[in-house]
Design goal:
By secondary structure, this protein is of the alpha+beta class. Helix content is 26%, strand content 35%. It has helices at residues 31-44, 86-94, 100-106, 191-216, 218-232, 303-313, 326-335, 337-340, 348-352, 435-459; strands spanning 2-5, 20-30, 54-55, 110-124, 129-142, 146-163, 166-175, 182-188, 236-237, 247-256, 260-270, 297-302, 319-320, 355-359, 365-369, 372-384, 391-407, 410-415, 421-424, 463-464, 466-468, 471-472, 478-480. The strands form 4 sheets. Strands 13, 14, 15, 16, 17, 18, 19 and 20 form an 8-stranded antiparallel beta sheet that branches. Strands 10-11-2-12-1-23 form a 6-stranded mixed beta sheet. Strands 3, 4, 5, 6, 7 and 8 form a 6-stranded antiparallel beta sheet that branches. A hairpin with a 2-residue loop joins strand 21 (466-468) and strand 22. Helix 1 (31-44) crosses helix 5 (218-232) and helix 2 runs antiparallel to helix 3 (100-106). It is rod-shaped, with a radius of gyration of 36 Å. GO terms for molecular function: lipid binding. InterPro entries: Bactericidal_perm-incr_a/b_dom (IPR017943), BPI_fold-BPI/LBP (IPR051660), Lipid-bd_serum_glycop_N (IPR017942). Belongs to the BPI/LBP/Plunc superfamily. BPI/LBP family. This is Lipid-binding serum glycoprotein N-terminal domain-containing protein.
Length: 493
């Protein structure tokens, strides 16, 4: 989602090089989206595959893969399990010797058959520290005596460290907390052995499982997590965008909030002298609006920042109006100096040598009218006489509902002709009493002739949008924020 809000910039513009402007934006990645990305990555990379078909023994770290574990561990299939005496299983099933459970464990009789998950949750601990919890469900069997499942958590601490304009990911720890075993019996061959077996199993797993999961899961999990977070904190432009000298996005600070990873972003754009209106050095900060429900990420602008960007992107083109257009002909007749003074009719030859142009040297601006984004374009309509010896000018301001689209990784502003209104500025004094007709003709010409041309020009001057791995703002929607402070009448003509 793309947001703009507020009537004030939080900070003044940062120092800039000649021909460049720097603009302050905010990029937020939803905590829920980050959880989903981590979960999807771990599932794709099957990080729990390494723990299946492995015996769990009391001697931490001695478990090795078993190639065939049903119904018994056969001699020769595993170096560690080859010492398993199958008579132990028979004795246990007949109930002859409960103490033999310990020997069965030592011989590799407790096997992890399968693993499901992990289910990922992310907990924000501070503005620079969060914890990722991987909930895993393991399915184990004790030969033909007992099948059960157990839920165990793996926790990874992550710290974001800021050095200058660089944010580095530091993984603090990856561990499995001891205790809190959640065991569910799935199948039992001998009910008399279940309680005794569970007592022994709990003791064994309490001692071995934390070390086992840390050894088998943590290395790959931390490597993948580090890579994903580094990608999230790295902003790029689409390959189709023109060279880096034109547009650059830089992450200057990163912090964690209750709902998102918040990155303060500096956008560097090309900008010639005088293209941007001066801003005060110190302006009151405005709070960021809440992340929209269901939004993966958003790129947030202050209105003034977005208008500054528009002014840097904008290059005007004068439009020469077709004199065969009926509205243009009516305007020429109304504005012609010969029409404003008594005298003979203007000859066809002199009328054919005049020109009517629409000029818009200043960029459009966006403002908020209630919950609606509006676009305001100032300009002038100029009637030039033969050989440019004389001219008549009418200044105007066109107000229209603003439409935004994000296609091909660019944010484009468009005017909506059907919602447009116009207000006239200074115009020839001889038109007294004909202002309404002049206004109607100017509006008709702008809607039918000027706006299609102007919208096409604005499409060519779209703002390149950033992208991060897994998230693109292509096809994003622009919404005004409810947290805005726009003065009454800000969008009035």
């Amino acid at each position: 989602m793309l947001l703009f809000w507020g009537s004030l910039l939080c900070w003044g513009l940062l120092p800039q090089a000649q021909g460049q402007a720097r603009h302050l934006l905010f990029l937020r990645v939803s905590k829920d989206q980050l959880e989903t990305d981590i979960s999807d990555l771990f599932s794709e990379q099957r990080i729990l595959d390494h723990v299946t078909r492995i015996p769990v023994t009391e001697a931490a770290g001695e478990g090795v893969p078993i190639l065939d574990h049903l119904p018994f561990v056969r001699e020769g299939l595993s170096r560690k399990s080859s010492r398993l005496d199958l008579s132990l299983v028979g004795d246990l099933l007949s109930g002859k010797s409960l103490p033999l459970l310990e020997e069965l464990f030592q011989a590799g009789g407790l096997i992890i058959e399968d693993a499901k998950g992990p289910e990922v949750t992310l907990q924000i601990l501070s503005d620079s520290l969060f914890q990722v919890t991987l909930q895993t469900k393991l399915y184990l069997s004790l030969q033909r005596i007992l099948r059960f499942s157990i839920i165990k958590n793996i926790r990874i601490g992550v710290r974001l460290e800021q050095t200058g304009n660089k944010t580095r990911v530091a993984l603090n720890d990856c561990h499995t907390p001891p205790g809190n075993l959640s065991i569910e019996v799935l199948e039992q061959m001998n009910p008399f052995l279940v309680n005794e077996a569970l007592k022994v199993i709990t003791g064994v797993l309490d001692k071995t499982l934390p070390f086992f999961l840390q050894k088998m899961v943590c290395p790959l999990a931390t490597t993948l997590l580090n890579s994903l977070l580094e990608d999230v904190l790295r902003i790029t432009l689409a390959p189709t965008i023109s060279g880096p000298e034109d547009f650059q996005y830089h992450v200057t600070t990163t912090e964690l909030t209750e709902e998102a990873i918040l990155m303060q972003v500096q956008l560097v754009t090309r900008c010639g002298p005088g293209q941007r209106a001066p801003r005060p050095d110190h302006l009151a900060p405005q709070p960021l609006p809440k992340l929209a429900q269901g939004s993966m990420a958003d790129l947030a602008f202050w209105l003034e920042a977005y208008n500054d960007i528009l002014s840097c992107l904008y290059t005007s083109k004068e439009l020469l109006v077709d004199l065969q257009d009926s509205t243009a002909a009516a305007l020429i007749q109304l504005l012609s100096p010969r029409e404003l003074e008594p005298g003979p009719e203007t000859s066809a030859q002199s009328r054919g040598s005049v020109g009517l142009t629409v000029s818009t040297p200043d960029p459009p601006t966006v403002c908020l009218d209630g919950h609606t984004a509006m676009a305001l374009q100032p300009g002038s309509l100029v009637l030039r006489g033969p050989s440019n010896t004389s001219s008549v000018s009418v200044s105007w301001k066109l107000l229209s509902k603003a439409m935004f689209s994000s296609k091909n990784q660019e944010l484009e502003l468009q005017f909506t002709p059907n919602s447009s209104t116009v207000a006239l500025g200074p115009h020839p004094a001889g038109l007294a009493g004909q202002e309404e007709r002049l206004e109607a003709l100017v509006l008709e010409l702008l809607k039918r002739t000027f706006l299609p041309h102007h919208n096409e020009l604005l499409r060519e001057q779209g703002l390149p949008l950033p992208s991060i791995k897994g998230i693109s703002f292509d096809q994003a929607r622009m919404e005004p924020s409810e947290n805005r402070a726009v003065a009454s009448g800000a969008c009035c003509l």
